[in-house]
Amino acid sequence: MTQNTRERGTTLVLGGTGKTGRRVAGRLTGLGLPVRVGSRSGEPPFDWQDEATWAPALEDVGAVYLAYAPDAGFPGASDTIGAFAARAAEAGVRRLVLLSGRGEEGARRSEQVVRDCGVEWTIVRAAFFSQNFSEDFLVEGVRGGVVAFPAGGVAEPFVDAEDIADVAVAALTGDGHAGELYEVTGPRLLTFAGAVAEIARAVGREVGYLPVSLEEFTAAMAGQGAPPEFTGPFSDLLADILDGRNASLCDGVRRALGREPRDFAEYARATAATGVWDA
Ligand SMILES: NC(=O)c1ccc[n+]([C@@H]2O[C@H](COP(=O)([O-])OP(=O)(O)OC[C@H]3O[C@@H](n4cnc5c(N)ncnc54)[C@H](OP(=O)(O)O)[C@@H]3O)[C@@H](O)[C@H]2O)c1
Fold first, then answer.
1. Which distant-in-sequence residues (6+ apart) come within 8 Å of 264 by Cβ?
2. Pocket (CB within 6 angstroms of ligand 1)
3. Which pTM does this prediction carry?
4. Residue 192 C-alpha to ligand 1 middle, in angstroms?
5. pLDDT of amino acid 202
6. What pLDDT is attached to residue 3?
């Protein structure tokens, strides 16, 4: 951490109750740094869909962690992120760390508006999160013993949200990360069947992977109440990122932190111990 970190003002953590933001906010608080959680349940509330909430959230803020919801790759995301980044620059924010996604055209546009906003930036372009199995849309499948997902036999270098948070905090608080694009993956390629097998081993019971079509998966999401404004773009995004384009390892964690990323097996062991996957 640099000497003047404490003079930088509050860090606004957007998505600060989510998978990565919660971890970023926790680390910053642990370092004794002032943090404001930016989300609809934050104080003051922050809503991407309500620009009137942006200025109060940006008051006295020196740095922003930007995890956009629902997804930096969705249609329109780059427009909203660009508008917010301009407001952040006007408000005196000096550092912006964007969470982006690998292999997503829309996310590339969101990266570009952040690069162009005039504030010192770092981009963390992440692989598929391991925590999607424990804190998001795949957790019920694990609990129920069948993870149905339209990934066929494609390999993915699952990345741990703990590593993403470490990289983000380094970029928010340290020197040498300005203008860096960190493409962050785990240390190993795994198929979804392989990842689910690691989870089954860790929980000590049968959990299987069921490859389904994108149409079947989308219909199941809709059946559980997901609105078409979400299922449409999400299906398009999955079609892109699950076509094999992301089946390679990147060195973002090592470049940012000087250490190797956490392996999926370690994530599975630690997560099983929390009981979140208990049937
Ligand atoms: N999942 C992956 O595998 C993956 C991979 C690469 C990149 N990403 C990127 O990760 C980002 C999401 O980050 P995450 O997974 O850490 O978050 P998350 O777990 O999806 O949580 C969403 C966060 O955003 C907040 N939120 C939801 N709707 C909001 C709104 N209208 N206005 C303001 N805040 C809102 C939520 O809090 P409230 O409900 O309190 O508002 C919560 O803090 C996306 O942009 C995506 O592109 C994800």
1. 130, 158, 160, 186, 188, 190, 195, 198
2. 15-21, 39-41, 46-49, 67-69, 71-73, 99, 101, 107, 126, 128-129, 132
3. 0.97
4. 22
5. 98
6. 40
